[in-house]
Amino acid sequence: MTAMNFLEKDQKLSLDKLRNVLVRLEDTIIFALIERAQFKQNEIIYVQGAFPFDNEPDFNGSFLDYFLLETERIHARVRRYTSPDEYPFNGNLPAPVLPALDFASHLIPNKINVNHHVKSMYLLNILPSLCAPGDDSNHGSSATRDVECLQALSKRIHYGKFIAEAKFQADPEKYTPLIKARDTTALMALLTNELVEERLLRRLRRKAEIYGQEYADESDAEEPAPVPSTGTYGAATNGTAPSRKRRRSSTSDGTKRRIDLDMVVRLYKDFVIPLTKKVEIDYLLLRA
What sequence ranges are listed for the domain Chorismate mutase (predicted)? Predict the structure, then answer.
């Protein structure tokens, strides 16, 4: 697959290349969700003020808020958010310490950023279905995976700007009067291809099914615990140990999976696709 390279000035927007990017981002998002799903919800890391940050007396956000802010501060210094396909969740980030890169100007100037919707959607609608309830104390690991999920979802959704621009350039006569009339209903109908969306959801479900399988060979079906020596852990042994089976989630057909397939499809159908379309329409209206 050929990806978009925003440093190539002579590269034109191509719907095929953009779709390749979106297909690759499906993989990124699914793997990020799988990684987050190994930990419990750990709801305390989303509670404002639950953790004291002694070196930041003016900060009163959640553990995730702090982790995300510090991550973006580092990324901003190495010019991540100067790239036209990267959007931060925080404002007032430090300036890059590296020389600026000369990116191609595919988009009209805009300040569209829907990351507040992305974060809210992720915390309220995705995490409860993705992770088991409870607290396993893996707060830092959970926040790390949350940031990865949020950044991947943000990138996927904001690619709607490039999709909208490419579609406009392919047929400006059809889009221009609707944009001037600010007819968002007609624009939504023009942007929507139900067959493509259905194909995307089928592909997504199949990927989640394949990537989320728990692989186990025959020796993993029942794994005996190591036999400690006499007196270890304060208890004598007779040289044998009880059988210990690994716990895995399973479906009705016996397949072991690390992620809920319906949740992944619902994520795209109910949130990613609608938010992407919102970005597309918001961007197109600026062309008036």
Answer: 143-280
